[in-house]
Design brief:
The chain has 74 residues and is an alpha+beta fold. It contains 2 helices and 3 strands, in the order βββαα.
Length: 74
C-alpha cells in the first residue's frame, strides 16, 4: 500500500446556525478550524418536517382523491 495516501484526519469545531457548537473529527481544513453551517438539522425542513402544502395544479390532486379516495384513511 502506498504511504501518505490518506488525508489528515483531525478535530474541528462545527458551529450550527443557532450558535451551538460541537467537536468532531474531519478532513476539513486544518486541526482546530471552525466549520460554520448555513443549513443544519435544527432548521432545515428535510429534518424538521417543514410546513409543506400540496398544491392542486390543474385538478390533479382532486382527480387522484376522487379516484383513490376510498383507500385513504380519514
Amino acid at each position: 500500500m502506498k504511504a501518505d495516501t490518506h488525508p489528515d484526519y483531525h478535530f474541528i469545531t462545527v458551529t450550527l446556525t443557532d450558535g451551538s457548537t460541537y467537536q468532531t473529527r474531519s478532513t476539513y481544513g486544518k486541526a482546530g478550524d471552525t466549520l460554520n453551517l448555513d443549513i443544519d438539522p435544527s432548521t432545515h425542513p428535510a429534518w424538521t418536517g417543514g410546513n409543506q402544502q400540496m398544491l392542486d395544479r390543474g385538478g390533479r390532486v382532486s382527480r387522484f382523491n376522487n379516484k383513490f379516495g376510498g383507500f385513504i384513511k380519514k
